[in-house]
Amino acid sequence: MMYQWRQSYHRYQSAVLMAIAIVLLLLLPAAMGDENSRSIISRFQEYLRPISSPPKPSPSHWTPKFWSWYRASHLFSSSGPAITRLSSTSGTTPLSMPDEEIGGHDGAEKFALGLASPTQNYRVFYGERCPWWLVLKATLYDNTAMENLLKSIETVRRFRASQFDLVKAGHKAEGEVISVNMVFLKAGTPSPTGFVMNLQPSEAQAGFDIRVPPTADVVSLERRIAEEWAPATRNMTFEFKQKGSTYNKFGKQILTAFDSSNPWWALLEDAIKSADGELGKPEIFPASTDARYFRELGLPAIGFSPMANTPILLHDHNEFLNKNEYLRGIHMYESIIKAYASYVEPTKDEASRAEL
After folding, report:
1. What percent of the chain has pLDDT over 70?
2. Phi/psi zone of residue 127: left (φ > 0), alpha (ψ -120 to 50 degrees), beta?
3. Band of the pLDDT at 305, cuts 50, 70, 90?
4. Is residue 338 one of the residues assigned to a domain?
5. Residue positions annotated with a catalytic role
6. N or C: where does the chain have the smaller number of CB atoms within 10 Å of the terminal CB?
């Protein structure tokens, strides 16, 4: 049941992105014919069918555990009912794409989110940290490959601690520092019973998941990796399995403006307020979402999910959303989609008069 629940929650994340994509479709010129559009809708309906009819015991049997699973399996529909209410009058066409959890390379990337809040204010994000997946490689030099690698691991550990000290001291938010987490160690010579115990490995590797905020000095970080974490003087080498850019294709930082220069920000604020909601202080998302693919193209993506008064249990056990927050989220999405879909960009003359 937990596996079933997790898959359902991941579909919810795709649905959140789907809501964003709907808005983009309303703003971009139509690129597909009617026949192709109908085909997409049919596939989308097939996609939803396996999770649209879960078991429905009587309310008297809805234990807290079952209700947590049941509502999680229906979280994706927070935006669905809002779209349904609006589609009859606006002609909105939904777009489905592969899950963000598998990287988004076959989804949002080729088409060109938010986080729970324990307070009553909705969290909103104007940027996010970019993933750098780094592998350090050590070979025999002076001592052993393992000793060589461990020196670098200790250097990385001290840097990691210094970044977290900034957060613990309140100088920076979690999304504003560089995080480094070691994810694997690889060394040794395999044998039928495990490893050969009397043979020094000639190579040792360590993998790190690094998340870099768009405000970071990436040149300094790259120099640190080359000179301190994998110095050539110790026969160390490194490679990136993935290295996200902190700049968009126009050479600007991948950040979305959250002031009067960005009309989409004002629309979001007004839509949330009109639905009796409140936004918190704009933040940099501490992880990575599909929004990065839109920002890389220069599109002003805003990370948002209507999940207030909810503990942050991202990928944790029993991740849930209160039923009242779920129903309130439908109202929020309806307000946001309506505001975005009805927005008409002012002409240059109108913009000039507004400035005066």
Report:
1. 65
2. beta
3. confident
4. yes
5. 100
6. C
